[in-house]
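User: hey, got a sec? need ABC transporter ATP-binding protein folded
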Amino acid sequence: MIEARGLTFGFPREVDVLRDVHLAVADEVVALTGPSGSGKSTLLLCLAGILVPSSGTVTVAGHSFEGLDLEGRSRVRREHLGLVFQFSELIAELTLAQNVALPLELLGASSREASRRAIALMEELGIAELSSRYPAQVSGGQAQRAAVARGLVHEPAVILADEPTGALDSTTGAVVLDLLLGAARRRGAAVVMATHDRALAASADRIVDLGSLSMPVHGASEASATR
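Assistant: Yep! Here you go:
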């Protein structure tokens, strides 16, 4: 689904945040763990093609970011990736349904078709009755469910989630996580999520600890890193 090979990234005048990272993810849920500053969010941004590594390659559903310009990376991201952040990052001026439908419209779907699919997914996630409300009119948990729907609506190969329940209380967070992982698994999408929450990490099929030189390897997937 998604693979990084020899990934190295560092900010100007700083030591490398990531150095020679190898990660291969199939149809599974992988939790990236490690202390603050270990590179969890940076790795996700590299996997999303938002940050460009100084060396190494990232391939998503058979499409490499290598050599692509900004528009090319954006195209791969729009077509094959779904992003879920710690805070919902919904557009305040759009209703929840319009926020969820947006990825489909960016891919060329008609407004009617995008709205139909958005509402159907919101129904699955238990927020269809909130479709006409704006982000400021719903709770944090409801907004995060809408963010999950937005990340899944175009049926991407991979969901990248950065602390997806970090802004929620434990009870609400557990509900949102179950919805995210359940919906992704039903669609055969891989999930890579960064977290410092042990309970959240325990729900994954595999844990990759970026703060350690020794990373677990399971089945056909692999993960290794040096720092």
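Quick note: Residues 213-227 have pLDDT under 50 and may be disordered. Let me know if you need anything else on ABC transporter ATP-binding protein.
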